Automatic annotation (TrEMBL):
It is a single-pass membrane protein. This is Type II secretion system protein H. Residues 49-160 form the General secretion pathway GspH domain. The lineage of its organism: Bacteria, Pseudomonadati, Pseudomonadota, Gammaproteobacteria, Oceanospirillales. Its main location: membrane. The keyword Glycosyltransferase does not apply. SUPFAM superfamilies: Pili subunits. Residues 167-187 are annotated as: Disordered. It comes from Bacterioplanoides pacificum.
Length: 187
């Protein structure tokens, strides 16, 4: 004998209410989740850039030899496109080229996302055996411009000190030493 239990199934109006509430939560939640993931991606990339600059300087001091960080072209020459893969290598002869007798120590993958811009006002970041940058000073910046805009800048002094730039004007982007915002992708 078939028995029917009452109150065990959804009625149409309850189902519609559940679907509407789910749609509202998804409408609010998905953009918030995307902002969260973009923010985390930016934080990871910023931390990775800081680590590779610190690694370059520390390696120069530890090995008592010039160590260089730069984007390389296919021939191993340093170029000025900081969205390319970045390489750290012992640059014994200070020629801004990864020669056959020099070792590549580490690298960071290229940035292919058009919402991201890495930039430096030179073609190399290089430290001598004392950890001094000398004439290889400048500002290495990172900017992600998507649902959020997040950026960072690392300012490298002649004595090799690496410090973070600050957002002095509260526009969510740090400024370069000249007071201008870090460069961001055109959007």
């Amino acid at each position: 004998m078939l028995t029917i239990r009452r109150g065990q199934a959804f009625v149409l109006i309850e189902l519609i209410i559940v679907v509407v509430i789910s749609a509202i939560i998804a409408t609010i939640g998905v953009p918030a989740y995307q902002r969260f993931t973009q923010n985390m991606q930016a934080r990871q990339e910023i931390a990775r850039l800081k680590l590779v600059v610190d690694f370059t300087r520390n390696r120069a001091v530890a090995t008592t030899s010039r160590t260089t960080l730069c984007p390389l072209d296919s021939s191993g020459q340093c170029i000025n496109d900081w969205n390319n893969a970045l390489s750290v290598f012992n640059d014994k002869n200070n020629n801004r080229r990864l020669d056959s007798d020099e070792a590549q120590l580490t690298s960071i993958a290229a940035t292919t996302d058009p919402a991201i811009l890495r930039s430096f006002n030179g073609s190399v970041i290089s430290f001598d055996d004392r950890g001094f940058a000398g004439s290889h000073t400048g500002s290495l910046s990172y900017c992600l411009q998507g649902q959020i805009t997040r950026g960072a800048v690392f300012i490298i002094s002649r004595i090799g000190r690496v410090r973070a730039g600050y957002d002095q004007n509260d526009d969510n982007l740090p400024e370069l030493p000249d007071g201008n915002n870090i460069p961001c992708p055109a959007g």
